[in-house]
Amino acid sequence: MPINIPRNLPAKEILESERIFIMDETRASSQDIRPLNIVILNLMPEKEKSEAQLLRLLGNSPLQVHITLLYPVTHETKTTSKNHLDEFYKTFREIKHLKFDGMIITGAPVELLHFEAVDYWPELQEIMDWSKSHVTSTLHICWGAQAGLYHHFGIDKRELSKKCSGVFTHQIIQEPVKLLRGFDDIFFSPHSRYTDVDLQEVVHHPELQLLSYSDEAGVYLVMSRDERFVFITGHPEYDAQTLQEEYERDVAKGLDIYVPTNYFPNNDPSGQPRKTWRSHANLLFMNWLNYYVYQETPFEWQ
């Protein structure tokens, strides 16, 4: 089954060129199927790129998925046009009366700020509180994961001595968990962040379970014991070139930045990186959609 997205969303053309099965709202309305309703709170600056990355993963499923895009109205974005937001996005006020089967909260380039210093933090707190009663399962990514761990469980982030950037190996900690079904013992995922969360705080928190860890990048996958919240500290949704684009952007700014670890061939930035985490990313999102959204949500979500 396809993902159901607005007809004119720019990501539609990208996904169609990759032969990902999608349909627009007009065709979807003619099918007598109860789709999974997923809301994506997109906090990334280049929203069109992150839309394509996430929709690509959500489209690799036998389930029909209807997407609602959400942005924080209390933040003025400078990298996405107002026309794009007006046409394809909703505000929290417009959807807060609804219930959703799943929610994704993306990363954001604000990790060096204290959470309370982020201009849309009060709005994000309201949305995260609302998710406890209006969303079956919420998936938090990178800074979104740090924000969720802080808001729901009181675990603060800490600044790293240098940016954690690259593609790292990860190992499984909790094998019987459904989210990890089909995972290899060792798998890859990109990270791109200046902060992390303390391993011991996660391990010893009675309401959390550590699912996956990297010797180089630290905590990767965490889930609440009631299985309502999933936290991913990396970026499995990234394209092959995303870390390269971030690295070149930082170099152009004159930042003292390291070459992303285990990313470029022979660590040479002139080479073309390969995407070694595609299988893991697809399996992670499929397991989440199936076991924590589809299998858990009621047919009539009132």
UniProtKB/TrEMBL annotation:
Pathway: Amino-acid biosynthesis; L-methionine biosynthesis via de novo pathway; O-acetyl-L-homoserine from L-homoserine: step 1/1. GO terms for biological process: L-methionine biosynthetic process from homoserine via O-succinyl-L-homoserine and cystathionine. The keyword Amino-acid biosynthesis applies. GO terms for molecular function: homoserine O-acetyltransferase activity; homoserine O-succinyltransferase activity. The record marks E111 as: Important for acyl-CoA specificity. The record marks S192 as: Important for substrate specificity. Its main location: cytoplasm. It is found in: Cytoplasm. The keyword Heme does not apply. It catalyses: L-homoserine + acetyl-CoA = O-acetyl-L-homoserine + CoA. InterPro entries: Class_I_gatase-like, HST_MetA, MetA_family. HAMAP family: MetA_acyltransf. This is Homoserine O-acetyltransferase. It comes from Priestia koreensis.
